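The methods section describes the discrete structure representation at length, but only in general terms. Since the whole study asks how a given chain folds, the encoding of that fold should be made plain. An entry of this sort, consisting of the sequence and the corresponding backbone structure tokens, reads as follows:

. . .
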Amino acid sequence: MRIYISTGLNKKIQTSKLLNKLRANKIKNIELSSGSYETNIFKKLKKIDRTNLLLHNYFPVPKNPFIINLASTSNKVFKRSFEHLKKAIKYSSKLKLKYFSFHAGFLVDPKVEDFGKTLPKQIINERSKILKLFIRRLNTLSKFAKKNDVMILVENNVLTKKNLSRFDKNPFLMTKLEECKKIMINTDENVRLLVDVAHLKVSSKTLNYDPVKYLKKLDKWIEAYHLSDNNGIADENKNLTSKSWFWKHLNKNAKYCTLELRDLSINNIHSQINLFRRKMNKKLN
């Protein structure tokens, strides 16, 4: 299983500069995600070896920030989201990347300044209606991706107790096993799962279900993982430890995993990669 490092939590330097820094320190597999807007980013990428890159969700970062929501009932939000995802898929294809991954949709439209926090209460849309809408749009996007030889991976959302109590309902798609399974069954073979185990840890505690059962039941659709750890209350992007809950339950046949770390110091990244290799080698043996 190939190991990538995410740039998504980098707030200090431009993505292209971080990329060069990581490569200079023998960290070659990099998932480009979020960060700050950067002009001519793809011209810069074309100047480097792109063999071990991936694009994720909010990359290329738009000049004017917004929240991607493929399930939005707002025509404006949907069109902007859909065009962004198609652009990212086109770039993935031009860079000869096999995968492009992005987050599942929402039953509300969060503002940029609220995202990652307890959301302000809004009118929440009907779940069954939004689920059908999301599935239909996923299949449309999948056809586009297939023509570009790119597989799309959908990432499970994270639901905190604060957001659940704020809305009195679950405002996010793909936080539970049954919904993820329904989406996989009703989308074509070019749509697979990217399971964020940190999101799963929080959501399973919020909604009181077994995260191991989630992984086992969805195993055949899991193409990749996002890995980090947390306190089970919020998505903190803490380091993995030898006692992190998920080690025994990772599918060894998954194609890749990405470490989403808050601490992107070179020493920490190497340490975390080495821990992953030790744990996975032990699992395989």
